[in-house]
Amino acid sequence: MNVLLLDPPWRRRIFRDCFCTSVAKADYGWHPADLLAQSSLLRETGMTPVVLDAVAEGLPADEALRRALGTAAEAVFALTSPVSAPEDEAFLAGLPRVPTVVTGEEAAIDPGGYLQAHEAVDAVLWDFTSPALAQWLGGERDPSRLPGLSFRGDGGIVHGRDPVPGPFALPPPVHEAFPRGRYRMPALGRDFATLVTDFGCPHRCALCNSGVLGHRVRDPVSIASDLDRIRVLGFRRVFVKAMSFGTPRAHALEVCGMLSRAGMTWTAYVRPDVLDGELAVAMARSGCRRVRMGVESGDEALRRAYGKTIPDARILEAGRAARDAGMEIGVHLVVGLPGEGPSTLLASRALLRRLDPDDLSINLPVVRRGSRDDRGGRPVADEVPAWLPAARALLYAGYLARPAFVARTFRAAIRDGEGPDLLRDGWTLLTGRRPGR
Ligand code: SF4
């Protein structure tokens, strides 16, 4: 059976994997973890996963539809999100009526409600590590054998059982089915593979739903097989896809050992209160080039409101640990959390100067569906004053215009062959459009 693994087209580069939605501010992106994971599980049962990542390829809807129809798919597994829902639904409506399963932020958080509202969708997968998609497509209808899947039954919507707690096994994904060179991450460039190591997150930040999903690590044996496969395919760079790498420590150190033996250069997200000297050294020695830390704000009270009760001193300590170990730092900030004002913005600017990151991502706040502060899909950003986007631009400008940063970026661009991509980023940031579209 041909199963189309679909990242439907949208007008901007959008990320909808791991039940989390975000829109890229520049031209970067990784392989959707849900599609990667299901490619492995479908192949294991003898089905043929056919990937169409219309977002990574920058395909307009008509071209994506032509390509999708050409796959002669007998079933569809698609990403969706609250942000792109109208376009996602219109795109799926253009495909032949075959069994259709979706996953994504809205669908996975309330699969019953989603199925009631979307008659053209037959099932929702709310755990992307589950083999239930392949089993359901193969005819299985016993919910006790379908963990992480909700579907239409004769008597209404049926919910599969919860996944078994503990590590999950995942055979190597069909990395080669994804369009090589169409993904890009800072410090990795364009030729990298994405390695799933975790499901969910061990932390519980207020606006984020990753912690609500629980946290399970991937069985180290299956990570090692995946890395073997990644090496055979010729990749030497890896984006470690964990919402927050480093917990539990023993698993993280084991993954570091495997990445080291595989000779990979890699990056990952780490919470600052998890990154200490021991972890930083292990990561750096195993090839981690850049850690990305969600700092959110330079103001401790705002961080507390976000659910990150991490003192400034601990964040600076994490930054020092990363630098001392020889790693670069990427920092994520949120501007516009309730209570944001001139003093908190100045605090963010001051913390940024002290951290001196190699790259910076500043986002307006969005409440994830299913998070502790879920407001029924209403974004916090609707409530922020109009001047906050300008404040964000000023924070960016103050950070980007420093000669030390420009020099460092220039050196990294030469090292990673990223010069044209950085120019493209500048174009995207200035115009909001991807070049060539
Ligand atoms: S924001 Fe918090 S809960 Fe969400 S992925 Fe990051 S550390 Fe985990």
Residue-averaged pLDDT, rounded?
Answer: 91
The number of helical runs is 15
Count of DSSP strands: 17
Bound molecules: iron/sulfur cluster
Q: What is the CA-based Rg, rounded?
A: 21 Å
Q: How large is the share of residues in beta strands?
A: 15-25%
Structural class comes to: alpha/beta
Please identify, by name, the CATH architecture of the largest domain.
Alpha-Beta Horseshoe
Question: How is the CATH topology of the largest domain named?
Answer: pyruvate-formate lyase- activating enzyme
Spatial ordering of strands, largest sheet: 4-1-5-6-7-8-9
- In the CATH scheme, the class of the largest domain would be Alpha Beta
Note down, in words, how this protein is organized.
The chain has 437 residues and is of the alpha/beta class. It folds into two domains: 2-159, Rossmann fold; 185-401, tm_1862 like domain (pyruvate-formate lyase- activating enzyme). The protein is built from 15 helices and 17 strands. It has helices at 33-44, 61-70, 85-93, 105-109, 111-117, 132-137, 220-232, 249-262, 277-285, 300-306, 312-325, 342-355, 387-400, 403-416, 419-431, and strands at 2-7, 14-15, 22-23, 48-53, 75-80, 100-104, 123-125, 149-153, 156-159, 193-196, 198-200, 215-217, 237-241, 265-269, 288-296, 328-334, 359-363. It has a seven-stranded mixed β-sheet, with helices on both faces. Helix 8 (249-262) runs parallel beside helix 9 and helix 9 packs parallel to helix 11 (312-325). It binds iron/sulfur cluster (SF4). Iron/sulfur cluster (SF4) is lined by residues 201, 203-205, 208, 210-211, 243-244, 271, 294.
